Amino acid sequence: MLETTRKRKVYQAILMEINRIMKEDNLRPGDRLPSERELSERLQVGRSSVREALRALELLGLITTRHGGGTYVQHYRHNKLIDILGYYILRDYKTKRDLIEMRKLLELDAVRLACKRATDKHFEEMERILEASEEKIRQGIVPTEEDYKFHRIIARSSRNSLLHRIWAPIVEYSKTIREDSLSREGRPEQAVKEHRGIMEAIKRGDVAESEKRMAQHLENSKL
Amino acid sequence: MLETTRKRKVYQAILMEINRIMKEDNLRPGDRLPSERELSERLQVGRSSVREALRALELLGLITTRHGGGTYVQHYRHNKLIDILGYYILRDYKTKRDLIEMRKLLELDAVRLACKRATDKHFEEMERILEASEEKIRQGIVPTEEDYKFHRIIARSSRNSLLHRIWAPIVEYSKTIREDSLSREGRPEQAVKEHRGIMEAIKRGDVAESEKRMAQHLENSKL
DNA sequence: GGATGTGAAGTGGTCTGACCACTTCCACGG
DNA sequence: CCGTGGAAGTGGTCAGACCACTTCACATCC
What we know:
The structure is a homodimer.
Chain A: H1 10-24, H2 36-42, H3 47-59, E1 63-66, E2 70-73, H4 81-91, H5 96-117, H6 120-138, H7 144-157, H8 161-177, H9 187-203, H10 207-221
Antiparallel strand pairs in A: 1-2
Chain A binds a DNA duplex through residues 9-11, 35-37, 40, 45-49, 51, 54, 65-71.
């Protein structure tokens, strides 16, 4: 039986046990965990308690469960902690100013890092996105999605996954509180030009210039 | 019955429902949630499913449950994401690098804003903290707490509470993955000097200088 | 009146057994 | 040889039971 001596609840003890099992059996991401019924029996606890522990791990994205198929270890990078944190931090957030400003800070941080770390693959992707934007504009479609993707690839080229993961929910949320400036006449064309300018500056590794251009671009993007 | 049309699992739907209930009833931190049995009945689901949802929220520290006493909303600042983050992804090398870097970015962002927004109250607080640090050093105590407080007051003087909210858990967590450099001989004295230099630069509103000093300080703080 | 004790009701904690839905896999029949 | 159907295994959910603990009103005592 699990150490119920400590006032820890059973499901918390099970969390530890599962962690131990994962270590002892050297389970790697993608491997399958013992079934709920087996865990229940091995640990001498009810299946419901096992499930409570597993649900917690699932919520965190540390495991995945497939109905009828089993429970599997997931790679750490898939964990949803940041997203959840973001969700709850931003949830009751009211001050638009702080949010917009935070976005700007992150975008600028990203662009600075990108100057030093962006690879050819990133530049190719940027190019593709810009071309897709231009194509959509020719067709009279507002390239909202491409605009987002361009900023995202910059966040990615910072090659700091934490920065990218903090950036994502903030941008997501700030989209909801402010109108899309791309709907303004002539703005999409201008935005693409600015994007291209930013990309070129990053390519040259010119931190000051790319920073300046990004700041200007964000400024212009306000409705 | 909950929308089982979406392939979402019941406990995930319940998470949403609980969120809705918290909003509709305008539940504030400290308030009590409906009991498990009541939720079970109101939502027409099994109590075990309700529990799975509640356990997930509890793991995140968003609610607390008191055996026999009920379930209560907790302030988000009590969330345990940091601990879990540390517990499960502590060994991921790449994540560590990103985390340290992210901290640096946020501290620099904070110091830049502080140059423009710090008030006399903030400076008085910094002064108090620095004096407390010096006092502890005189007593032969390592001023770990004061070090943290100094950085926090800078984050606060950015006057962007979102920045502060993101900053806090990042710093909290990075403390756990790197040794405290303050234990190094002579380091506390040096750190206080650097803090003072940063403060002075902020007072002058000298963005470049305070940024530079903060960067240097963080660099020196590595063990 | 106020402090104290007590018991019923309410609540979370856990286990069991049942049934359903889905996946996996192998033996059987083509 | 291939597919195919079905049994076995697994997660998803529910209902009911019992225990441990808290709360609170009410009775009791000083």
